[in-house]
Amino acid sequence: MEHGETCARSIDELMSLLSDSVKERSGDIKLPYKVRVDQECSFCRKNKQIYLADHEYEHPEPTFIKRMPASVAALSYEQDYPGRSVVILRDHETSLRYLLKNKFLLYIAFMEDVSAVADAIYKVCGPTNINYEILMNLNDHFHMHLIPRYTSEGDKIHKPPVFRGMDTLDPDFDYRSLALEIRKNISPERSPFSQCLEHLIDSGLP
Hints:
Largest sheet: 5 strands, antiparallel
CATH architecture: 2-Layer Sandwich
Order of helices and strands: HHEEEEEHHEEHH
Distance between the termini: 48 Å
CATH superfamily: HIT-like
Number of strands: 7
Oligomer: single chain
């Protein structure tokens, strides 16, 4: 392509190129779909504890926010940054590189979930910004950390957030109330694409 030329003459042409690319990068999404589960994975075990009650999905842990179409959202045990959350893929994949090359449709649905949860955190907690981090050092099941940042941090707001690695609940923090408030502010609107991926995952659960 020479300088000054465009790859498409219209949005429709551009969308066609995008559609071909997404399809090419989603080759491992086949019907009937089968969700991967690792019995040794703590996230997989927690996801299996989700149950339906009064038309809403619930979980025994007070950190549970909501079961989303492609993910599960929960508060982090660490609440040094109020509203700090984790969004966990509802399929046991352990590599972002693999998702982007082989299950890109699933990644797109996951990011729609992340966007919805982030919007709710902004409404409830009023942060200045949210940091998004994919680390997977302690658990390789694909997930993303959402870390609200606040002007009250002073100059520290310009530095990476602190990870203390808490593995137990803080008995003095009211996780349940904050989780429910964030859930209440997650928009019920779902794109047709997101609804389709949710059905795909639900049908593929073991």
